[in-house]
Amino acid sequence: MSPTRRHLDPDQVRRYLAASLGPGPRVTGCGPLTGGGFAAVWWVTLDDGRSVVLKVGPPPQVPLLRYEHDMIGAEARYLRMVAARVPSVPVPPLLHHGSDPELGDWLLTGLLPGRTLWELTQAGADTDEVRIQFGVALAALHGVTGDRYGYDCGRAGGTTWRAAYPAMLDDLLADAADWRVPLPVPAARIRELVERHATVLDAVRRPALLHFDGWAGNVLAVDGPDGTPRLAGLVDGERHLWGDPLMDLVSPLLFRRTEDEPDEPLVRAYRTIAPFPLDAAVRRRLGLYRLYLYLLMTVEMPSRGITAESDPWRVARLAELLDQELADLDKP
Q1: Is 320 helix (H, G, I), strand (E, B) or coil?
Q2: Residues 178-186, mean pLDDT to the nearest whole number
Q3: Torsion region of 114: left, alpha or beta (phi above 0 gives left; psi -120 to 50 gives alpha)
Q4: The whole model's pTM is what?
Q5: Alpha-carbon distance 200 to 242, whole Å?
Q6: Does the structure show a pLDDT above 90 at 37?
């Protein structure tokens, strides 16, 4: 189990529920949900008929990556913001955000129905409509404008996107040094390659709200009246940040290249609402964002207890993808 994921049991779940909702509702059932590695996440049913989700942050003594500080609070801020400013985007309703010296930080939300897009894809279901609706939802999220770029609450950011992106990257490289994560090239070389192409970031003039964790495991769908899966919710917004909308088109096509798949349903739907060219500058920006994502996924492995022995495919695949993105940046 990931060292950041707090161990819970049913008695502890009852304590969190009482701290959130008071002594009234009783827990009638509960159990862990799988999929994420950062927080402990449990489904809970209550005697008043509600089904809820409890998400508990890591214990205070567990070391975290720099951008992960106050992640539970970040998700609470995200859920409030989306519910207030983009109600068309389905997110879990926030019921309580708690912080306690003994219990730590936690969230209680409503439980959205549905199966993940990942499960549907693995089962061979037709997911085109879900991906179209996901693209529409991302475009709606990106209509929300922040007052700075990067992460909030004192984490890496800047007054311009060209300043914020390298600051975020620098934090990841510092985390790599702290955790002794081997990189394909020295950190100084990565910074040099990014700086060489940083002018493309000047095209971003507005800090848009980004989910930035829109892989298929965080997209929920339910069957419509005709049996076709339809979007039911976007979950796990704790990694949200403010920046270039194109950055949000990387995780949904994880391990693929958005610019090479303009007819992919999500990409096509998104570009219908928020058109962007597929020119050299856009391709470069997308490459920089894949570099950041793959670096993040690589650097976080030790903090999640992931090794070449426990997950050889992930380690090898990320090394290959990082090499590819760095080689592209090194081209004239």
Answers
A1: helix
A2: 95
A3: left
A4: 0.96
A5: 17
A6: no
Q: Which of 224, 216, 218, 75 is nearest to 153 (CA)?
A: 75
Length of the chain: 332
Token digits of residue 15: 């304590």
CA distance 7 to 142: 35
Beta-strand runs (E) in the chain: 27-32, 40-46, 51-56, 94-100, 104-110, 115-116, 149-150, 157-158, 208-210, 219-223, 229-234, 241-243
Distances (CA, A) of 312 to 122, 175, 306, 308: 21, 21, 9, 4
Residue 92 pLDDT more than 80? yes
3-class secondary-structure state, position 1: coil
- The answer for residues whose C-beta is within 8 angstroms of residue 207's C-beta and 6 or more apart is 145, 146, 147, 148, 149, 161, 242, 243
If one counts every other C-beta atom within 10 angstroms of the C-beta of residue 328, the result is: 16
Six token digits for residue 64: 């975290």
Quick one: pLDDT at residue 35? 72
Question: Which residues are paired to 40 by β-bridges?
Answer: 56
